[in-house]
Batch of 3 targets.
Target 1
Amino acid sequence: MHLYRWLTSIVAAPLLVYIVFSGSRRIFYALLFAASVKGLLEVFHLIAPQLPSVFKIIGIILNFFFFYFLWQGLFYQAFAMVCLWVIIPLSFCLFSSPTVRGQAAGVTGSLVMAFLYICLPLGLLVVIDRHPKGNLWILFLLTVIFISDTGAFYFGRFFGKRKLYPSVSPNKTWAGAVGGLLVGVLSGLFFSYLFRLGGFPLQVGLLAGSLSICGQVGDLVESMIKRNAGVKDTGRILPGHGGILDRVDGVLFASPLLYLYISWFTP
């Protein structure tokens, strides 16, 4: 499993860097959309395994238009799509069988949670990409999150004794959390210096540290959802890593913070 984890990273990381940094934006946005669809299906499997297929299809169609409007820069239309994630499922339930009508709140709640948890954070990466140096900021985010995750794994493996949150994730330790935070901050500072993103070192360090913490919280939240569902991984699409959600859980929690930072502190 550990070997597969490294092989997957060695193959996928350079390709991802190329797509984000200099590849076609259509390909990058298509990749985000594909990740969001796979993430949606994984979340549906975890929180609503009995969800009728028609609602999954509705979610995927709404998600397509959400990403399409973001890609076109039609942000008000994308905002309207957020409302439709509630309106359309409820309307469909209204004109369905009594059994489906009785599940209206649960079905709609599952769709809305999946959208807010998966689609909206990944959609923010499209918005960030439209910002000056947006591709570099996305690489900054991925660098901090992934290196922090790797650092937490090895610090926990070699130095971890005291468990961080055993009832949710038995393998995580305080040493891993602190080690992940430290390497996340250092990687953020180095990346910012290398690519001249701007900002004082203290400011960049605080941002990187905050992103690392958000990523670790996102990891714990995903562990909580998986434990509640009684599964170890959300999928097998990434050998050694699991499903899409297993790989982007930290990015989902960190992307809103990065978007707010760029909106407030960069020209």
Target 2
Amino acid sequence: MELRVLRYFLMVVDERNISRAAAKLHVSQPTISRQLSELEAELGVTLFERGQRRIELTVAGEYFAQQARQIVLLADKTVANVQRKHDVRGSVMIGSAEAPMMVSVAAAIRHMRETAPKVVANIYSTDAEDVHARMQTGFFDFGVVMEPTDKQDYHFINLPGATRWGVLVKKTSPLAQLEGVTASDLHNQPSS
């Protein structure tokens, strides 16, 4: 089955007449009739009920016409995309807290550099409050913040990964001997 034949078939479907379809395609009527007969033989079904001046689609023909339109549309779109020059350029400003989730953002940036090498990604390290403020002014194109955060005015997706907090203490501190530290462990600790 060739795209050319699908285009012939769809023109006949649109015109409901082989002569008019042939004229629009600048092809002879016998050529289109032969191609349609070969298509029906290839598929093993009757696509048209042929009348005196007009032809109608069979149930199989209706289904095949829907599918053929999608195939031709996809083929045309694919050719257009291949032939189009992908010369996307510009810069993206990303506001972010330093978090393990940035690994996902870094992977997306790496992919973007491969597909759009003239786009520059700028990462600005900050906190959630500053991300919100700079998103409002349009300085950041998007931000990476940790929960809980106000998402009311934004589209939001959860990135994979988890954030873990740590406590930095001297080796001589009693906390250094613990396997894990809880908030209650920190409650009575001196501030210096």
Target 3
Amino acid sequence: MENIANSSWFVPVLAVIMGVGLLGLLVYIIPGLTIIWLAVLVYGIVSGFNVGSGILFGVITLLMVGGSLIDNLFMGAQAKKTGASWLSIIVALVAGIAGTFILPPFGGLLFAAVGILLVEWIRKRDLAGGAKSAGGILKGCGLAVVTRFGIGVLMIGLWAAWVAWL
């Protein structure tokens, strides 16, 4: 493994993979944070772990897990601010997951917005209120994309520090 770790192509290839992961954060079908994390894991396995790199890898892992949960938290929180019920938020979550597979790459977002719109419209008999909740889901999604992108940049930065100094 030491031959691979010391080769001239290893780090640049991982950097490109991480770049693809970072761009994947802008499209829901590609699990960008997971791709970045896996590239860091491969680097750690090939180059070896020590105390400092183990701590950095632990922080990168926590960032990946937290960043993966942020979508649902931000989308649900923004929808809740508009008065959406928990039932609507759960339906939107399930519809979003289904939509990701039915109509990639943006089906998840579309299905989540339509799901919350329909449930809130039926629940309140108010199309404008349902639209407001759908807007909340979309706003939460936008905030989540920006946040996940920042987390991805931070993960890559921590890996770069690992490569440079550990």
